[in-house]
C-alpha cells in the first residue's frame, strides 16, 4: 500500500508538470487559451448551478456542474493544444512522421523509408487498412519518389493494399492536422495476423534508415540508433 501511495505521489507532479508545459506551449501560439478555457468552465458550472436553484437542488446540480465544467475545460484545452501543436509543426521536416508515430495502437510506423537529395521524404505506416505511404516535401519532386516506393511495396507485399497520401494544403493533398483522421478512416481489410506478416516482410526488406552505413568507432554521446538499426 505504501509503495502505491508513493508511486501516485511521484506520478502526480509529473502529470501537473506536463500539463503546465503543454499550457505554456499552447499559449505561445494561442494567447487566449486561458481565457477561453476559464470561460467554458465558468459558463458550464453557472448553467448547472442556476438550473439547480430553479429545481430546488442546487447542491446536487452544483456538484454535477463542477464535474462537467472540469470535463468541458479539459476537452476545449486539449483541442486548442492540439491545434497549436499542429500549427507549430506545419512545414517542419518530419512533421508527418511525428503525427504517424502517435496515430494509435494497431499501426506500425517507419519514418523516412525513402528520401532524395532535396530532403523530400516518404514515411510508411502499416495497419489493418494495409500499407500507407505518406509523402512530405515539394509536390513536383515527391510524386516520383512516392510512385517508386509504391511500386516497390506492390512487388513485396502483393496481397496487401498500398495507399499513398501527400501531406500539404494544395489540391489532392491532406493537411497535417487531418492526416491521422484520414488514415483512421481507411477501410480495414486485413486481419491481425496479416498485418504482422506484412510487417515481417517489410522488416526483412529493410528501409532507408536501417541500410545507412554507421560510422566506425564509439557512438557519439546522446546519439540513438535508428529503429531497426544494427551495430556492425
UniProtKB/TrEMBL annotation:
What InterPro entries does this protein's entry cite?
A: DUF4191
Region annotation Disordered: residue ranges?
209-232
Pfam families attached here?
DUF4191
- Membrane-crossing residue ranges in chain numbering: 33-53, 59-78
Q: Which UniProt keywords apply?
A: Membrane, Transmembrane, Transmembrane helix
Official protein name in the record? DUF4191 domain-containing protein
Q: Can you name the source organism?
A: Streptomyces noboritoensis
